[in-house]
Amino acid sequence: MEKCSHHGESQECASCNLASGHTETRSHQGKSLEEEDRAIHRTLRNIRHKLLVMSGKGGVGKTSVAVALALSLARRGFKVGLMDVDIHGPNVLRMLGLKEPFDVQHAQFDLPPDLYHNLKIISIEALMRNREIAVIWRGPLKHQLIRQFLSEVQWGELDYLVIDAPPGTGDEPMSVAQTIPDAKAIIVTTPQEISLADVRKSINF
Ligand SMILES: Nc1ncnc2c1ncn2[C@@H]1O[C@H](COP(=O)(O)OP(=O)(O)O)[C@@H](O)[C@H]1O
Ligand SMILES: [Mg+2]
Known about the structure:
CATH topology: Rossmann fold
Order of helices and strands: HHEHEHHEHHEHEH
Helix content: 25-40%
Bound molecules: adenosine-5'-diphosphate, magnesium ion
Largest sheet: 5 strands, parallel
Radius of gyration: 16 Å
Distance between the termini: 37 Å
CATH class: Alpha Beta
Shape: globular
CATH superfamily: P-loop containing nucleotide triphosphate hydrolases
Strand content: 5-15%
Number of domains: 1
């Protein structure tokens, strides 16, 4: 199995594959944390509403809500970004029937013309050469990936950034909350009491 020379991961490292066609991402080429912070700040300044779609449980319809919300906002003429940070089960591309991005840096996919100008999408899935590789990462790496999604992708001006989070209150929602302090949460649940109990944890989070 390939070993990532930057992170020492015993598997293909998507952090290093983010800027496709480059062997190293800019941050690995010496972009300091402060520079990255400034890049994230610049990105966030140009985004009016940041919506984090989360839930206590998996399989309750989070990705469906995130995708439907992003599509309907884009169709209404809003400029929308859709960011898939469910690193362990990225489904956004599959749900939209999209394959490879033609431009990772600008988060552009082959989309129907009426959505083309309004919708930008980034997903870890687009960065993994093999969709079937299960991603087993430590928290700090996931945090770094989310920072790179915000610092390296050219989102431009957006009305909405919709973020599809993995279930629960783990590393990714925490990283998003730290990196995007003004994000609003949309919490998805099914009506069962078990699911509602987990959702209360998400609301407290
Ligand atoms: N409102 C709904 N009614 C019925 N099935 C749904 C609904 N929303 C989503 N699903 C189905 O439930 C499954 C899980 O949905 P998904 O959006 O992937 O959930 P999550 O992202 O929370 O894991 C999918 O097969 C999806 O098609
Ligand atoms: Mg999902």
